[in-house]
Amino acid sequence: MKDIVIATGNKGKINDFKHIFPDYNVIGITSLLPDFDVEETGDTFEDNAALKAEAASHLLGKAVIADDSGLAVDALDGAPGIYSARYAGENKDDAANIDLLLKNMAGQQNRSARFVCVIALSEPGQETKTFRGEAEGVIAEERRGENGFGYDPVFYLPERQLMMAELTADEKAEISHRRKAIDQLKEYLSKE
Ligand SMILES: O=P(O)(O)OP(=O)(O)OP(=O)(O)OC[C@H]1O[C@@H](n2cnc3c(O)ncnc32)[C@H](O)[C@@H]1O
Ligand SMILES: [Mg+2]
C-alpha cells in the first residue's frame, strides 16, 4: 500500500481522507512529528494550505499534502471562512463554533453557504500546487447527526434532505468539498 502524508492535526479530516483514499496508507503528520504546528498567517485557504504542506515537506524531505478548509456563509459575507476553526476562540472548539454560528444566523432568512477545501501538494524541489473543492448547502437552525466533525451537524444538504453529519463517512467521501479537491489533485497527478 502506498503511503500518503497529510499535514493536519485534525482527526476528523484524517478520517475523511481515509475514506477518500481507501487504497492508501493515510499518515497524519502528528504520528511522524508530534509537535508539528504551523501558524496560519495567510489571507486565503490557498496560502494557508501551502504554508502547512511546505513546512511538513521541508521537515520530512518528501511529498506532503495539506488541507485548509472552512465554511463560507453568504449572509455573513463569507465568514467564518479561513477563521472557521477558531471562530469562537483560539482553543478550536467545534461545539462553541456552532453555537456562535447559530447565534449570528438567528432570524436570518438567507441561509445559503458552502464548505471550501483547498489541498496543497508540496514536493521537494517543486513549486507548490493547490486544488480547490466546494460543496453547497444551507445552515440549519439546529444540530442533527452524529457523524463527521466541525460544522457538519448544521450543514444541510437540500438534495439529500440530510445534514452532512447524517451521512456515513463513505457517503460524505462521495460528495464533499474535500473529495472534490482531491479529485483535482488526482487528475493533476495522472498527467504529471
Ligand atoms: O489546520 P489543520 O491542522 O489541518 O486542522 P484545523 O482543524 O485547524 O483545520 P483548518 O485550519 O483547515 O480549519 C478548518 C475548520 O473548518 C471546519 N471544516 C473544514 N472541513 C469541514 C468538514 O468537512 N466538515 C465540517 N467542518 C469542516 C472545521 O471547523 C475545521 O476546524
Ligand atoms: Mg488549522
Automatic annotation (TrEMBL):
Cofactor dependency: Mg(2+)
Q: Which UniProt keywords apply?
A: Hydrolase, Magnesium, Metal-binding, Nucleotide metabolism, Nucleotide-binding
Tell me yes or no: is Hydrolase among this UniProt entry's keywords: yes
Q: Where does Mg(2+) bind?
A: 39, 68
**What CDD domains does the annotation carry?**
HAM1 (cd00515)
Give a GO cellular-component term.
cytosol
- Does rRNA processing count among this protein's keywords? no
Q: Where does substrate bind?
A: 8-13, 69, 149-152, 172, 177-178
Q: What is this protein called?
A: dITP/XTP pyrophosphatase
